[in-house]
Amino acid sequence: MELPSNLSTDEASPEWMNKGDNAWQLTAATLVGLQCVPGLVILYGGMVKKKWAINSAFMALYDFASVLICWVGWGYRMSFGDKLVVFWGKPAVALDEKYLLGQAFLGYFPTASMVFFQFVFAAITPILIAGALLGRMNFIAWMLFVPLWHTFSYTIGAFSIWCPEGWLSKLGVIDFAGGYVIHLSSGVAGFTAAYWVGPRLDKDRERSPPNNILMMLAGAGLLWMGWTGFNGGAPYTASTDASLAVLNTHVCTATSLLTWLVLDMSVFGKPSVIGAVNGMITGLVCITPGAGVVQCWAAILMGLTSGSVPWYTMTVLHKKIKFLRHVDDSFAVFHTHALAGILGGILTGFFAVPKLCRLFYLVPEWERYIGLAYGLQTGKTSAGLRQMGAQLAGIGFIVCLNIVMTSLVCLFIKLIVPLRLEEEVLQIGDYAIHGEEAYAIWDDEEKYENTQVNSAYDADEYPSVVSKTVSEFQMV
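Structure for Ammonium transporter, as requested:
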């Protein structure tokens, strides 16, 4: 019996390729890409003060382009290629058609699809770091930070946890779609970088209302819906486990958002839109390490936890700990990503279902992946404790890695350019840095007649910009 013509194999559709899996992987990758561009671009652009809208959005846009070149140039092979050491791969290009058209190391689709899918994960991570640095980081320093941090931090975490040859992968750490590699990494790295870059102006820290809440919500919506590809693409196949991962993702997120909202209303008396967005993000982050390996009722419990614990640390505990107050973490990525990622990793170690782990990993030794709750239930307590130990080891490694490497990257950049913008530039914002403003009205066009875009960092240009009174550019 012959296959239908659309399923027959040829040079462009080899026997090993599953067209459905390949189509889903490319779709999932595109959804994650949309989380970055335009999702986080407009989320950041709307959530900051007016004078930082362009700079904040552009930091995200630059990152997306920069990481892609690093990724195909050396990053992908360092993350998923041949082992250099136990925690790092050998740098090599991913540009040759013979390599890209071959079967990916996992899944039934080409390596080119895997490179693109993993790229969008690599790209979103520094954008999340940027959330801690908005409103004061030197843009040239950011241009250097992205490729350096990507090379010396992200690739190590990705290889160690996600590559089959990585030491934490062999240890059995469960990180379904990046709770460790992406969110814990970005939360710790963002907080560390914020320490080295220094704070915003005092007036910007004291009062920094969003300049466009509706635009912020549009970006948040793209982030939420894009997570369908974020977690749904992690199994590398259009499978039942992918479907469960998608459902769990949205259930946990909705629960977390509502929990945060109720707490805000109970304590502050008003339903906060920004609080709801924070609850949404913590829910998305928390479910990510276990999206396809936990029951749907467990996703609800994870949402309750992610909507309450980070709420407490952000609104109550943060004010009581001097060091947390000292570091200017613009969008509180320490709470929304680092802490939520830790909670997700621990809860995954507790709730992971052996059957679901089998569906996800499809490896002979799948029985070693067992949550502590199921270990206690089935008499395999030692196996459950082992899993919990692996989850904690992964947390410890990612935290230490990002504190050390982020500090080294920042200190190196500091030898070349200042990490923080000059005080007079901080007073003005976008116009001083980029020669552009986010919301220019019709009679502002004279400001742009003699503007040379991207010349703001020339030392000779500062006097001409700063000579204009700050009040002329005063932002809401």
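The chain has one domain: 13-433.
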